[in-house]
Write a structure and sequence with these properties.
The chain is α+β, with helices and mostly antiparallel strands. Helices cover 19% and strands 30% of the residues. It has helices spanning 54-61, 114-124, 131-139, 194-208, 223-227, and strands spanning 2-5, 17-20, 23-32, 88-95, 101-107, 143-152, 161-172, 177-185, 213-219, 231-233. Strands 1, 2, 3, 4, 5, 6, 7, 8, 9 and 10 form a ten-stranded mixed sheet that branches. A hairpin with a 4-residue loop joins strand 7 (161-172) and strand 8 (177-185). The radius of gyration is 22 Å and the shape is globular. One of its GO terms (molecular function) is N-acetyltransferase activity.
């Protein structure tokens, strides 16, 4: 897992190789560290690190707080922060040999058809997952970013053709931490920097929401790709841990 230390109140851990049902799997938990992609477009924030005093937790362990006295601390409610609206903009526009115009559109509005997503997963060779679980994963994500290709026909009677060519999503506690999942781009559109654009824009959107501890899981062959985006494996020796049922 890779880490991106934009400002990490609570560090997450990087990942590890593990043996599951006789197969050796290599994943890295990556943390965002030093963004190199100009994420200050309305997204720069000052992050405050929060440190919990060890003495407090030690007092709980030793039972010093087991008395019957209850202290009530009144706090004034914090003003609600308005969430940034979903973005949608044209990344690329080009004219095809037949005169059709193709646009590649980025959106953070989460407009994903689960059947289109399954077809995209098939194209990149990912194992199939139940559609009901795919739908639940999308619904419960904090943010879903997509890339769509829209082909505008030169013929007046020809309609626009729209297809999903890329996606990434993030889960979050809505306060400190977020993890990016399922970054994928249609193989016929790879090599154009679209995966980089997906990750950069989803990080920017998270920073705009004041979420600065960003992690993701990466296969060993794409660790360098994420390093170039500012992610760092095993920061300060932190390790990500997996739990699996043992049958």
């Amino acid at each position: 897992m890779l880490t991106h230390k934009v400002v990490a109140p609570f560090s997450l851990s990087p990942i590890v190789s593990f043996d599951f049902q006789g197969q050796q799997v290599y994943d890295k938990l990556l943390f965002a560290h030093n963004l190199k992609c100009g994420l200050d477009r309305g997204g720069s924030r000052k992050h405050k690190s929060l440190r919990l005093r060890a003495g407090f937790w030690e007092s709980i362990k030793s039972g010093l707080l087991k008395d019957d006295t209850t202290q009530v601390i009144e706090t004034s409610p914090e003003p609600q922060v308005e969430e940034p609206l979903p973005e949608e903009f044209v990344l690329i526009e080009k004219t095809q040999p037949d005169g059709a115009i193709e646009q590649i559109i980025f959106s953070s509005g989460g407009d994903v058809d689960v059947y289109d997503l399954q077809a995209l997963c098939d194209k990149v060779g990912w194992p199939r997952r139940p559609l009901s679980k795919l739908a639940a994963a999308l619904k419960n994500s904090y943010m879903v970013a997509t890339l769509h290709s829209i082909r505008k026909s030169p013929e007046p009677e020809g309609g626009d053709q729209k297809k999903l060519i890329g996606m990434a999503r993030a889960t979050s506690d809505h306060a400190f931490n977020a993890t990016i999942w399922d970054v994928l781009v249609d193989p016929s559109y790879q090599g154009q920097g679209l995966g980089k654009t997906l990750v950069e824009n989803i990080i920017r959107a998270l920073l705009q929401r004041d979420i600065g501890n960003i992690t993701l899981f990466a296969d060993s062959q794409v660790v360098e790709f994420y390093r170039n985006l500012g992610f760092e494996p095993d920061p300060e020796g932190i390790k990500g841990m997996f739990w699996y049922p043992k049958f």
